[in-house]
């Protein structure tokens, strides 16, 4: 391989590695502790939970968060003179246990804003209201590891960037190696 081709190959490889470095820097998922948009939940013993007062279902809307996220819930009761609460039921026993996030207002009959930081248990769990007769008031909350769901392509962006760098290096190497060589001039006579 000629000196010029080697230089081109080295320059292209360095450019690709530089691109990979920038891809990694900008594609690394955000750290935990994100402030998420506020979740609005309306609740009714007969209808369940909904994101509006006319969209009540059982199960209620899916909530997706990461460990360490700061979550705000605006909880509104549609039942007159009925107490409700909100909690994550990690062990699915329909009782608020010591390790479970719950609305610290105790109860709400009209509206309450509830803030909490997501604990370190990952998986999909039920969220519920804890009072007798609130059996329809449940939905699912999915808790992922911190940094696992950065917006858009998330962690896949890094993988795509690495694959593109590898393909670019291989393509440049193949072109430089297979390029037709000029015949050497005949030796002087």
Give an overview in words.
- With 189 residues, the protein is of the alpha/beta class.
- Helix content is 25%, strand content 25%.
- It contains two helices and eight strands.
- The protein has helices at residues 3-27, 156-178, and strands spanning 39-44, 48-50, 60-66, 70-77, 87-89, 111-117, 123-128, 138-144.
- The strands form two sheets. A four-stranded mixed sheet has the order 2-1-4-6, with no helix packed on it. It has a four-stranded mixed sheet with strand order 3-8-7-5, with no helix packed on it.
- A hairpin with a 3-residue loop joins strand 1 and strand 2.
- Helix 1 (3-27) runs antiparallel to helix 2.
- The longest helix has 25 residues, at 3-27.
């Amino acid at each position: 391989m000629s000196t010029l081709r080697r230089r081109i190959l080295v320059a292209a490889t360095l450019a690709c590695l530089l691109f990979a470095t920038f891809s990694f820097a900008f594609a690394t998922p955000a750290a935990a502790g994100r402030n998420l948009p506020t979740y609005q939940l309306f609740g009714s013993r007969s209808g369940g939970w909904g994101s509006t007062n006319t969209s009540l279902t059982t199960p209620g809307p899916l909530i997706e968060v990461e460990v360490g996220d700061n979550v705000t819930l605006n909880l509104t009761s549609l039942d007159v003179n009925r107490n409700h609460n909100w909690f994550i039921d990690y062990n699915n026993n329909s009782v608020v246990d010591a390790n479970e996030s719950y609305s610290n207002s105790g109860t709400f009959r009209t509206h309450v804003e509830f803030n909490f930081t997501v604990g370190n248990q990952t998986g999909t769990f039920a969220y519920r209201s804890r009072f007798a007769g609130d059996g329809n008031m449940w939905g699912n909350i999915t808790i992922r590891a911190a940094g696992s769901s950065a917006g858009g392509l998330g962690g896949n962006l890094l993988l795509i960037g690495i694959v593109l760098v590898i393909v670019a290096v291989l393509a440049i190497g193949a072109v430089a190696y297979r390029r037709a060589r000029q015949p050497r001039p005949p030796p002087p006579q």
